Amino acid sequence: MPLPEFTNETIQLSNGYTYHDSLTSLIGLGSFGVVYKGYNETDNNKVAIKKMSRVHVKENELRVIRSLNSTYLVGVMDICMLDDVTCCLIMELCDGDLEYHIKNNSNEGRLNNANLRLLIDNIARGYKGLFDLKIVHRDIKPQNILIKYIGKSKQLSSAKITDFGIARTLDTEEPDLCNVAGTLFYMAPEVGANLLKTCQYDSKVDMWSIGCLLYQCVTGEVRSVVCFALALFKQ
Questions:
Q1: Catalytic residue check, 139
Q2: Among 139, 163, 202, 206, which one carries the catalytic annotation?
Q3: For residue 56, what is the DSSP state?
Q4: pTM for the whole structure
């Protein structure tokens, strides 16, 4: 996604939320929106503000993120309208994502033992939170794990699952899912199998994605995961 045109103005939102529309405040770019670093004027609490067109705000995504109540999941704190066509999702501000950490603060893609232990613990707890709510994330990968550091060190203090744009909630009317969604490198075989035939799946596909992610963090390799997944797709 190309960089947006910045106004270099301070943008005031409802409920005291503020951000500066500039490159220095930009912290993320996505397919459907941009994320700025902002704060709340009431308590000076720093937040992440995801600005996106209303047409890209799915009612399903809002329903999912509003139901989240876990320390290990990044939910939405507030929703503010910038104008008739643009809305802003107010979220917890983290230090970065796991993909950045792997590229810049690891040993050739491998995490140290302390960071690996914390990552396993926190992601497992996040998965448990989703499982209890019958939510299938469907796109767990390093870019969708937000992290915080201990002070100015590179030791992780927390890891949280984020981005519920293609998540779905299982219910009695739709106990299983049967369409392709997610990122190939971390996609469970039963999800990818829907390219060839109808194949139902549930929240266990997220555990496969977590396994691929952790394998990458232990070995520093992604290619082996992809080859293994492609071999399973062919069966």
A1: yes
A2: 139
A3: G
A4: 0.84
